[in-house]
Amino acid sequence: MPLRSPLLLPPSFVPPYLLDRLAERASAHASARAAQTLLIDREHRGLREAMAAQGVSSGLAPRYVRHDSPARAIHDAEHTMSLPGRLVRAEQQAATGDIAADEAYDYLGATYRLYHDIYERDSIDGAGMPLAGSVHYGNDYDNAFWNGRQMVFGDGDGEVMNRFTIAVDIIGHELTHGVIDHESGLVYEGQSGALNESICDVFGALVKQHLLKQTAQQADWLVGAGLFTGKVKARALRSMAEPGTAYDDPVLGKDPQPAHMKDFVVTRQDNGGVHINSGIPNRAFYLAATAIPGLAWETAGRVWYDTVCDRRLRKDADFAAFAQLSVEIAAQRFGADSAAHKAVGAAWNTVGVTAS
Ligand SMILES: [Zn+2]
What we know:
The chain is an alpha/beta fold. It has two domains: about 15-180, Elastase, domain 1 (Roll), CATH 3.10.170; about 190-350, Neutral Protease, domain 2, CATH 1.10.390. The protein is about 45% helix and about 10% strand. The chain contains ten helices and nine strands. A five-stranded mixed beta sheet has the order 2-1-3-5-4, with helices on one face. Strands 6-7 form a two-stranded antiparallel sheet. It has a two-stranded antiparallel ribbon with strand order 8-9. β4 (about 145) and β5 form a beta hairpin. α1 packs antiparallel against α2, α3 crosses α5 (about 190-210) and α9 runs antiparallel to α10 (about 340-350). The chain is globular, with a radius of gyration of 19 Å. Zinc ion binds near residues 11, 13, 173, 177 and 200.
């Protein structure tokens, strides 16, 4: 039996243990903002997302028109928690001059382009679902999340954390939670939850690399670079290349991610360590992607995408089950003698995950 967390939290970008730390140790302003963010995440968002999820699964969702371009709508929540807020930029409209609104528009577009142009997927549901986002949610809210229907971005406290639209991979990460919900639906707890988190980091990184036209070798493999201000010692929220090294700071503490199965963290916090143990499959992806010269989204990314969409992937898959399926898929798509097949198998071995 997996350890049950005291409270299962829906996905959000900044994990609860980091906000707990900020609430305890940051200066008065940042501490108050972190505490308020935790309150919203624990008491309000759970209910909201349960309602949104019902909408997704009810079969009553509207049928969208399929396009070769996104249908974006950016709203301004005007520092309230009512969603979506006032529409400030619809698809094809000019920039607003509000940097958060314009980044949200551009990066929702970048995420759409990776999924559409590379994986032939029309939006989150594969059926042209409009991409809605709300910026300026709450009062200096220290998080971002996908609620089943739209993206929501806080402004950050401005002291420890910047605005949440600042990094394209944050948006790629959050929208990928939506993609997973429409595919394997990996349960957000324990190893399947850590896989869910890791897959969101993987496609967040690929959205960024695709936007910047970077090879696997050129990429920084950081998740959320730019989110932290210069006042804390943090390169990013996570490092896929070197899990456990993204930050080390008196206020934030030290990045708790393991990079190998031998250091797997058993905990009741964070839905059973979903943002912690994701370091292990993150590093496996990084190793596979960088072992193959060129563009990560074409080879390792294609293998991961096919694995996420494969009906054989169970909701409660553990690392070994995902590893096994990804190795099989790499052989099917690229050939048993291919560099991709060898790289994927070797990557899982290196992080101590034995394909089951
Ligand atoms: Zn997440």
